[in-house]
Amino acid sequence: MISETYPILVADDEVVSERQLLKEHESGPRMEGIESVRYLILHCSATRPDQDYTVRQLERDHRARGFRTVGYHFYIRRDGEVTQHRRLLEVGAHCRPFNRCSVGICYEGGLDAQGHPADTRTPQQRKALQQLLVRLLHLFPGVRIMGHRDMPGTTPKACPCFDARQEYGWLEDVVP
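Now predict its structure.
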């Protein structure tokens, strides 16, 4: 039997007691480290181009689904504004069963005016997303950029409504 002496470090956080360890780490809110992240998973909010879907609305909808906050790590508004909602090594709530090994990125949009899946990203969103992906590739070498729809074993859907591998997969080869 291993006997721990507290405080200990878990994923760069100081844990002062066994109770904190069980509550905050063993129960799942943190990944084990940078090497735990294997995917950057892209999502859309499944909203129409004429529908303003604010961070506040996103948070309200995720709380209504039982999440303690927004399930994605990042959210990109139509104007290109990027907001962060989870710490990088915090387990997300965006793509079961890959939440423990991924960072979730969602853009506002993904449906056309009739409510059908469509790539509705604005030029500002495209630029912000590519810049964010480059930053994350520097932090997490070797990760793969994937669309939610491309993850095996997940609920079948069109999300993120474009081919993430085709559009951004090349970044994996050029970002050191």
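The helical segments are 18-26, 55-64, 123-139, 164-168, 171-174.
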